[in-house]
Design the sequence.
């Protein structure tokens, strides 16, 4: 068997540079993960095409990796075999998105209502702080 990789150390990814370019609301992400979402079945087929072939390749890799990382956290181990996804690149130099999703998702409505209440309360507090700061 041929060795298809080199022993050269890869550069470490600096996440602080990425988060500066892409604004991520960490508190919102944490709250969404606490919603206790349960996926029973998932059948996702996505065909994605962007005008630039390089961007298409990166987008497909990022989406596939993100789904692969998040899926085990929101699917019970017994249902993991019923979850399938396929992300395919389309290199035709046009903006193309074809999404086929067949899924059963369980989530408690009360958890969504609590999340919305907390978000509205935080937004109200931020507005009040801004008004108070401007007044002084």
Sequence:
């Amino acid at each position: 068997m041929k060795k298809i990789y080199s022993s050269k150390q890869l550069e470490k990814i600096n996440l602080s540079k990425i988060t500066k370019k892409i604004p991520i609301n960490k508190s919102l992400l944490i709250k969404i993960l606490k919603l206790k979402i349960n996926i029973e079945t998932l059948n996702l087929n996505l065909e994605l095409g962007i005008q630039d072939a390089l961007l298409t390749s990166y987008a497909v890799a990022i989406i596939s990796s993100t789904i692969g990382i998040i899926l085990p956290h929101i699917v019970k181990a017994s249902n993991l075999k019923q979850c399938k996804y396929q992300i395919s690149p389309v290199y035709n130099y046009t903006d193309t998105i074809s999404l086929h999703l067949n899924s059963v998702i369980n989530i408690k409505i009360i958890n969504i209502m609590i999340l919305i209440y907390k978000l509205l309360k935080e937004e109200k507090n931020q507005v009040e702080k801004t008004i108070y700061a401007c007044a002084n």
